[in-house]
Amino acid sequence: MVALSVTGCFYLDSCVVISELLDENKERMDKFKRDVKNYTISCYVSETVINECKKKVTKTVDFVGNLLSNIIAGYLEKLGTPYQRDLAVTPISNDDLHIIRTAFLEIGSNARKFDLFSDPFQAVEEWIVEKYEGELDKAKKPTIYSLLTQLTAIILKEVNSLQSDFESLIELEASYIVQSIEIPDPLISAILVNNGIHQTDADNISVISSHQKNNHNKAIFLTFDYSTILRNWAKIQNSNVKLNNINCCDPIYGLSFLR
Q1: Are 15 and 227 in contact (CB under 8 A)?
Q2: Residue 116 belongs to some domain of the structure
Q3: CB-based burial of residue 17 (10 Å sphere; 0-12 exposed, 13-18 middle, 19+ buried)?
Q4: Is the dihedral of CA 27, 39, 166, 228 positive or negative?
Q5: Backbone phi, psi, residue 163, to 5°
Q6: Positive or negative CA dihedral for 221, 222, 226, 230?
Q7: Residues of the chain with pLDDT under 70
């Protein structure tokens, strides 16, 4: 039984939306969603956050769909030899797994470099290794090409799943999320940029200023971004009095800012 009521709402950063999409930061997200349910707190996503998420999803889908299988195939063709192997006739071997490991290290590095989701790659990697292990134990081993054909199918499945899950989330089928009509506050955004916050993050955060001005209702910006936002937020907030009512925190602390 909830004893005290709270006033105000939450605005979600793209990393919180993505955590919901990919089921990441599960303990923190579960606590946050319990708070939202128990206290009937409105949760908004701004258009700037939605656009940021869309760009990341699109880049990830393109990367997975167009490059992943080609990278792996290229590695396997040149495995330990100065010439290309014919994957259509070459049976799989245990050595392939070590090359696959190297390929996915490169893929993971590129995912971080280009700001992509890593989960789809991990799911494909886990499937490949498990499939390889099972086939290696058989007396008659399949060719690399036949396994790559199956790999292509699983990649397409992962791509379609990611697109579908994101579209469902953005269409606000997640029951606790509402799309906001508020736009960034250019003054607040400029102050944040001058304090080292990236323009996209500054725009996302400044939307809560617009919300508070237009609705006379407290709004808290929730993010998992410790590297550029949360770790420096106290210093940034103290740099300008116009930021006094702009609060950012990890989702598990959101409720404490509304009491």
Answers
A1: no
A2: yes
A3: buried
A4: negative
A5: -65, -45
A6: positive
A7: 1-4, 64-71, 78-84, 111-120, 168-175
Residues 169-180: tens digit of each pLDDT: 666 545 678 889
What token pair was written down for 173? 């089928």
What residue type is assigned to position 83 of the chain? Y
Q: Which domain does 225 fall in, by range?
A: 9-46+180-257
CA pair distance 77, 157, nearest whole angstrom = 24
Structurally, how many domains does the chain consist of? 2
Strand partners, 179: 45
Type of residue found at 178: V
Distance between CA 194 and CA 156 in Å, rounded?
43
pLDDT (tens digit, 9 = 90+) per residue, 125-175? Answer: 887 888 888 889 888 888 888 877 777 777 777 777 777 777 766 665 456
Residue with tokens 């925190």: 249
- Identify the three-state secondary structure at position 9: strand
- How long is the chain? 259
